Each structure stands twice: as structure tokens, then as C-alpha cells.
TrEMBL record:
Top-level lineage group: Eukaryota
Region (Disordered): 1-60
Lineage: Eukaryota, Metazoa, Chordata, Craniata, Vertebrata
The protein's name in its UniProt record: Ubiquitin-like domain-containing protein
Domain Ubiquitin-like: residue ranges: 62-131
PROSITE patterns for this protein: UBIQUITIN_1, UBIQUITIN_2
Cross-referenced PANTHER family: UBIQUITIN DOMAIN-CONTAINING PROTEIN UBFD1 (PTHR16470:SF0)
Biased composition regions of type Polar residues, renumbered to the chain: 36-54
Regions of compositional bias (Acidic residues) in chain numbering: 1-12
Organism this protein belongs to: Champsocephalus esox
Gene Ontology terms for molecular function: cadherin binding; RNA binding
InterPro entries attached to this UniProt entry: UBFD1 (IPR039120), UBFD1_C (IPR057455), Ubiquitin-like_dom (IPR000626), Ubiquitin-like_domsf (IPR029071), Ubiquitin_CS (IPR019954)
Length: 287
């Protein structure tokens, strides 16, 4: 029995050693697990970093492509959908030069400045209409016509008299029309209640002028047709007495932004010239 007990003890001791070995093995495995846990933590960091990058990518996707339409021009704009209407106006300013304060931005109505594009449900590819004028346009519009008239007059004084220029001589050389209205030199009269008739235009055809004050229009009538021109669209009026016939004038109404748009009328009675200018430039004559 002693031998057996001893044997058992030996066996127990022998079995105890593997247990110790197992403990060491467990410790070793635990150590390995702990040692390998650090790279996992590093991986977690990498994953966090990847998640962050993923958010940035989402931000990139959270943009909308817009078509900005202003003054018959189209602009492509990509902008975060969480930008406000005010931020959109700043972007439009950088594209067009149109100050935000002078913009009227339209998307299903007037676009609010304090709401985001997401809140007002702006979709990808949406067309944004912009109405407004640049500072240069505003200054040009607000420049008094009298100032423009003075500048034109100063420029005219530097040039050769209009009635000597070839383009006008071919009309003036036809002579004074027989049915022209009588002129009174050295006097100023209001516009007559009937159209000014019997004059020539640049092509040498007969023309009449009718001032429709109640409609704010100048009617330029020829044998072929009558042009109804809003007086507000006439930029300025050029006039000059006809040499040798100073009791009659040649007058041009500039209908567009350049001199090429001038509509010339010849043999206008001198007494009505100032009244014509005042009427067109806004100083209406009432009767």
C-alpha cells in the first residue's frame, strides 16, 4: 500500500506538474493574448480612423449639384446640402459678381436665407433662378439722363458737325420737304396736339412723331409701319441745327446701348426741339 500510496503520490505529483505546466501554458497564452491585444487596439484605432474618413466621404456625398441661372447665363455649382440660403448667395456672388444684397434667389418661390438647402428640399440638379443687377448696371440705370445728355453734348462738340457727315448729307441734300411743318427760329413751344409730320428718316422716307404721354410712348410712324417705343427705353437724344437752315434740326433717338441704335429724324422745326427732349427725358409737357 505504501508503495501504492507512494506511487499514487508520485502519480499525483506527476499529474500536478502538468497542471502547473497547464497554468504556465495558460499564463503564456494569456500573455500572448494580452500581447496580441495591443495590435487589436491599434486596429481599433485604424478602424476609428477609417470610420472618420467614412464620415468625410459622406460629407462629400452630402452635396447637391445646382444649375444657377442668371441674366441668361448658366453656372454649375456644387454645394453642401446643409448650407443656408445666405451661404448659397455668397457662392452665387463668387460666380457672377452679383452682391448678395442685390440677389433675389428663386427656388419654388423666394429662397429663405436662414434655412438650409436640405430644409427647403433642394434636390440634385435643381435649377436656381437668380434675379438682380450688378453695381455697374445699377449705376448706369440710376445715372440721370441729364448727365448722360451733357456728356454726349460735350463729345459732339469735339466732332465734325453732324450735318456735314456723309451719312447725313445724302438725306439733307434732298432739300427741305415741301409738306414740312413751319418753323419759328429763336422760340420754344410745347409739343403740338397733332403728330409732327413731313420729316425724313435716315433712309429718306417720310416719318412722323407722335408723343403718347398717357402711355409713356413715342410712336415713330412711317409709310410701312408704326414703332411704339417706351420713352423710358430711350437712352438720350442728340440734336443739331442744319447748316443753312438753322430754323430746322436733325434729331436722333438712341433706342439701345450704343450709337448704332440711333434713329435719325431730319427737318424737325426748331421751336419743338427742347419740348421733344424734355418729354423723352422725363419732363413731360401737359396741355
Amino acid at each position: 500500500m505504501a508503495t501504492q500510496d507512494g506511487g499514487e503520490e508520485v502519480i499525483m505529483e506527476t499529474e500536478a506538474k502538468p497542471k502547473g505546466a497547464e497554468a504556465l501554458g495558460e499564463d503564456a497564452e494569456k500573455g500572448e493574448t494580452e500581447s496580441t491585444s495591443h495590435p487589436v487596439a491599434g486596429d481599433a484605432t485604424t478602424q476609428d480612423s477609417n470610420i472618420s474618413n467614412g464620415d468625410d466621404t459622406d460629407d462629400e456625398r452630402e452635396k447637391v449639384d445646382l444649375k444657377i441661372i442668371w441674366n441668361k447665363n448658366k453656372y454649375d455649382l456644387k454645394i453642401p446640402i446643409d448650407n443656408t440660403g445666405a451661404q448659397l448667395k455668397e457662392k452665387i456672388h463668387s460666380l457672377t459678381g452679383l452682391p448678395p444684397a442685390m440677389q433675389k434667389v428663386m427656388y419654388k418661390g423666394l429662397l429663405p436665407e436662414d434655412k438650409t438647402l436640405r430644409e427647403i428640399k433642394v434636390t440634385n440638379g435643381a435649377k436656381i433662378m437668380v434675379v438682380g443687377s450688378t453695381m455697374n448696371d445699377v449705376l448706369a440705370v440710376n445715372t440721370p439722363k441729364e448727365v448722360i445728355q451733357q456728356e454726349v453734348k460735350a463729345e459732339e462738340e469735339k466732332k465734325e458737325p453732324l450735318c456735314r457727315q456723309k451719312q447725313h448729307r445724302k438725306v439733307l441734300d434732298k432739300g427741305k420737304p415741301e409738306d414740312i411743318m413751319p418753323s419759328i427760329k429763336g422760340t420754344k413751344e410745347r409739343l403740338p396736339t397733332v403728330p409732327l409730320a413731313g420729316m425724313y428718316n435716315k433712309s429718306g422716307g417720310k416719318v412722323r412723331l407722335t408723343f403718347k404721354l398717357e402711355q409713356d410712348q413715342l410712336w415713330i410712324g412711317t409709310k410701312e409701319r408704326t414703332e411704339k417705343v417706351p420713352m423710358g427705353s430711350i437712352k438720350h437724344v442728340v440734336s443739331e441745327p442744319i447748316e443753312g437752315h438753322e430754323d430746322y434740326y436733325m434729331i436722333a433717338f438712341q433706342l439701345g446701348p450704343t450709337e448704332a441704335s440711333q434713329y435719325w429724324v431730319y427737318w424737325v422745326p426748331a421751336q419743338f426741339v427742347d419740348a421733344i427732349k424734355d418729354t423723352v427725358l422725363g419732363k413731360w409737357q401737359y396741355f
